[in-house]
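hey so i finally got around to running the thing on that chain from the lab meeting. sorry it took forever, my laptop kept dying and i had to restart like 3 times. anyway pasting the input first so we r on the same page abt which one it is
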Amino acid sequence: MMKGRNLINAIGIPAWLFLIWKGGLYYSIFIFICMVIALGEFYRLMENKGARPLRLVGMASTVFIADYYYVQPFITSHELLGGIILIVILTFIWELFSSKEYPSQNISTTLAGILYVSVLLGTAIDIRQFDHLMNTQLTLALMLSVWICDSAAFILGSLFGTKKIFPNVSPKKSWVGSLSGLAAAFGVMVVFHFQGWLGDYFSLKDALMFGLIAGFFGQLGDFTESLLKRDAGVKDSGSILAGHGGVLDRFDSLIFAMPLSYLYIHFLMHI
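ok and heres what got predicted. didnt touch it at all, straight out
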């Protein structure tokens, strides 16, 4: 297990950093593949609870959503809304003809997976496109903030943490670890700001806001996925990454951090 984990780290981390640096189509395809795998893992969790989500509808919707984030400047809000309407209607019609038990549960989990995984994680494509247009490194900053936050929370929480935050959801995570992770996320963003890696569009206030998103809401994303896994009675969402669990386990923090950064950029900063 440890050997497989080390191999994943040795190959995966440099490859991932290269894709972030490269951006463009290759990065977007990689995020799309992660979306598809993570959606499949989410549906597997729901199947453990007796639901039968419509996987084909979910995967087809993910193609549309990833394409939207990649070519967003060229798609109008009416086209986006039209696509969402078709997804919802198709889900209900497909379930009507599938003759499965518990149709309400099947429809709900199908749409929940599309919203939770595809819509939220897909914003990672848009933010990297934003980096390219505005000459920033926000994608890299967010991902490093989330990962360093997670590492700091684990190390310092293991050493000094006693009081747990959500013992029924994630019994090993403590307040000391969580606050340490939050401080680390702020630190990463401050470094990126003063090094000029966030470009000219973001002030120190913006950098601190991104640190809050990565360090606070990123951890909430982690807790949320732990809640789903505990409810499904499993330790990991999948086993595709040896020693690391599933793709959903690796991207759970980003599933909250990326879309909230997306909202901050496009709706609060109006960029």
